[in-house]
Structure formats: structure tokens, C-alpha cells
Predict the structure.
Amino acid sequence: MMSRITHFSASAVLLVWLVVLSGCATPVGVNKLSPRKSYQDVYANPLNAGVLSDPSKYVLDRYDLLKKFDKEPAAVIAVLNAKALHDDRGDILYTLAEGSYLYGSQLVDSSQEKEQKLAPDYFLLSALYSAYFVKRERASKRLNIFDHRARTAVDIYNFGMWQAFATGDTEGLVLEAGERKLPVGSIYISLDTSEFPWKLEEFEKFLPADQYAVRGVSVRNRTSGVGLPLIAVRKNVDKQVGGLPEAVTAILRIQGGVAALSAGKARAVLELYSTLDTSTVNMNDGIAIPLESDLTTPLAYALEGSELFDFGLMSFLGREPNKIPDGLYMTEPYRPEKIPVVFVHGTASNPVWWVKMFNTLRFDPLIREKYQFWYFVYTSNKEVSLSAAKLRDALRDKVATLDPQEKDPALQQMVVVGHSQGGLLTKFTVVDTGEILVRALTGKNFDALDMPEESKDRLRRLLILKPLSFVKKVIFLSTPHRGSFQSKEWIRNLLRWLVTLPTTIVHNSMEYYVYMTDDIKKMMGGKKTLFTSADSMSPDNPVIKALAEIPLAPGVQGHSIIAVDTDGDPKLGNDGVVEYSSAHLDSMESEFIVKSDHSSQLNPLAIDEVRRILVENLAVELGTGARPQ
């Protein structure tokens, strides 16, 4: 009787479950997804979701290894490796690449130190299997550009390299020759720096660029390809002013397949390339492959915690005059046959304000190939002619040092780009002033001035100028050629009270007071007082008016980028600091008006105009007559 009741109860339960299931989802069916979620689901892989992709699950299921991989991934990888020795289907290699990467990621998160130390070996395996997969599929012509596995395999190769060489106890990767014993074999890795333009000993560390998120820059400029982008940090270099870390890409060129790996006879060469100098490499089949690159992250890394962000206003006020020495700095080591582009910042500013333009321009392959970028740092509170003299001297000295015999024609085609006050300094490099500025300051010809010879020598250096022969193009951005309407008398008086200048500069700025015209003395309040850059940029200053009327030297091209932030006729407007009528110069090769405030060097359209000018300059230099877009 009891057995019949039990049988009845079991039947009842089954009947209940059938009723429930009839109103619920079936064991096999579909769920509706949004396009974004669908894309994430369809193309999930170890890199973006921490799971195996569907193609890899297919292979594991084919060999009844899908469930086993969850419990014993190392054993499954060994089984698949053995199968790959005799089965030429590329999907096995692809599954090995994904499986090795996924297992490596799990080992990294392990609480066991012994397991954590195994992780780099599995990441190296993932890079090797990825390379084997791509090579075999290409050889058999089974790989097509529409196969998502192709790009994922390259990404696993790139990211696998990052974690495969993270074998040291300190920050940075260990890039050295040696044998690596792996769970399914071993491989000897040698190091090739024949295409690397520097000595490895110069560098303190090599950091994976992808381990950093960039902030403060609108676009992170990367190119897709093969290889691991690195930040190469030099030893004993003041990163505030000593140049940027180098953008480097590493590739692992593999010799021998799965059989050689399993037998311990595989070889690989770790090659290093300067991203600025090399954009493609020839792989074993002779086909040029683009290098993966990242030009923005090394720049952002250099600026992390940089004192350059503090340099500007405090320097202008004279509170930290020696924090960053005035001078000309290079963003990279000198490269012959590349035309220098020199950035000159404005008042109470610093080179950081050029970062967006620099980041954008350098990403352009043509610009990167043909130009090198320098920047001039100066304490912007001094009278403009003093800062301009420092710029002229710095450029002249740098060219003489780099190319004393003038064998590099690129150095003789320099482009100087100046923003605001920096534009005034820029103009001082390309004008033949004669005695025009001296007369504007004193009302007399130079020889008629009755002053000490030492003072006359200084005045000659500051105001009687010949153009620098190697500067062939200048670009003015928001430049107050006829002064700034913001440089009013009360502002100038306030700045004289706030600004602190070294004693020698104070003396030099006032030693000519007795020789000045009545107009300049009136502008200075009728008394011998400190003369600042604000006085230099006063619309009432006869010297700046005279400079505005001096044409550029023959053979020099000038371009104006003028910011206007007001409505209506732009020629009647201003950018909040400079009127259009002050920024405009006749006889410029081009004039571009951009809707912007005074910080026009940050405006994307202004940056693109600078690019246009630089590319057009190349067409002229090459004699093609073309005007590239």
C-alpha cells in the first residue's frame, strides 16, 4: 500500500512540474537583447569579458573538454597541445591561445604565490599560440579579415606579451635573453636591438603603455597592429625638462611551431623599435605588418606630477624664477632631416598648453616623419625684447651645436609657432629692424645716443636685429601685434606692484628710462619704474606699434591664426584679450579666423590649420607644388 502511495506521490510531483514548465521558459530558447548587449555577448572573449569565446567553446565541446576546462584548465591545455601536434586545424591553436590567456588571468588572481608565479608562462604561451594560429591560417589561406578571431588573436599576442615579461620584482618588464621553461615545453628568447636607436643601458625601465589610463587629453592616439606599446623611461633624466619618455613597440618574432615548442627547440627574438621611427615590420613571410603604437601615453606619463603645471602664473609673478630654467627643450633626441617646429608659449603660461596640439600633430604619420618638436620656456614677466633675445640666442646656439657645419638642410627650414606674447617673441626672429625700434624707444638714431658703451651693446642686442637665417616659417596664434586692450594702465600698475624680478633685470629694464621718448615715459606714469611684459604689450607702446609695421624678412612665410569670441563681424571682434585689428598683419601667406577664446592653441580647428600649414610647407620644400589636405 505504501509503495503505491509513494508511486502516486512521485507521479503527482512530476505532473506538477510539467504543468509549471508549460508556463515557463523552455530549456532551450532565446532571450531578447539590446544591440549593445548582443555585441558583448556574441564577441565575448578572455580579454573583454574574462570568458572563452564561442569558437573556443566549440573546440572544447568537440573533444568533450568543455566542463573539464572549468576544473582542470592546465590539463586541458596539455591535451589540446598534444592534438595540435597532429591536427592542422587552426581552431585548436586559437583555443589554446584563449585558454592559456584565461588561465593566466586566473592564476594572477590566485591567493597562492606559487600559482601566481606560473601566470607569466601561460601568458607567454597565449602569445605563442596566437602567433602560431595566425601564421598557420595565413599559410593555408583560411584567415580572412572578417574573422573576429584574427584581431582577437593579435590582441592576445600583444597583451600576452605584456604579462609574459612581467617576471621581475620591481615595476617594469624584464626584457632580456634567456630560456623560458613552459608547462608544455620551452623556448629560448634572444634580444634584438639592431633597429633600436638607443642603448638599453640608457633606460631605467620599460612600462606597458596599456597599463595606464590617460586623463586630461581629449584623444589617446593609438595605431592598431602587432606588438606591445611601451613607455621607455630614461635614467637620471629630469622629466620636467629633460625630454619625454620614448614611445617604443616590442614584438616577439617566433621560430618553430608547436612541435618545436613541445620538444624544447623553439626560438624567438624579442625586437624593440622606436615608434617614431618605425611604423611597420616585415614578418617571416615578407609581408609588412603595422606596429601597434601609443604616442599619447608616454606624453601623459611624463606630465604626471610635473612641475610644469605650476610653472606659469607663479613664474610670471617672479615667485619661483629658477624652478624651471628658461631655455629651449626638445621633446625627443635630435633627428637629422626632420624640420624643427618650435612652440613658444604666451604670458603666464607654460609648455603644457601645447600638449593638445603636439599630441594631435605628432599622430599624423606625415608630420611625425618630417618634423621634430621643440619648445621654448621663458619667464613671461620680462620686457618682451629681453625674452625675445633669449629665444634668438637659444635657437642660434642649438642649431650651431647640432649642426656646426650646416650639413642638415632640415635645420635650415625651422618653423616657429608662437601664441600670444610668444607670437611677439617669434616675430623678433624673422625681422630686420634696422634702427626702427631704437628710434621708437628713444626718438633718436643709435649713433646719436649718448650712453655708456655697455648700455649701447645691450640695446643693440635687444632692438637692432637681423633675421635668423634658419627660420623660414612663422605661425602667429592670438598674437597682440599692436598690443592687448586688456593691458590697461591700472592693470600695468598692479602688475608692477605684484611682479618680482631679479635685480639685474630690474636694472636693465630701467637703465634706458632717461633716453625714452615722452610718449613712453607718459605710458609708464611719468616716473622711473619697473618695466614688465604688460608694458611691452600696451597699445600705447610706440615700440610694439613699430614692430607691427616691420615686414617679415624676404624668404620667410608668415601665417596668422586669429581667435574671435564675439558675435557679428569677426574683424570687429576680439578673443577677450586681443582685438582682431591687433592680431591682423598684412602680407601674411594666410589668415585663419577661428571661433575661440584667447587660448586658440587648444582649439581643434586652429590645430588643424597648423597641420595644413606644415603639410603645405612639405609640398613646397619637395618642389611638388601640390597643396595636400
Notes: The first strand starts at residue 178 and ends at 182.
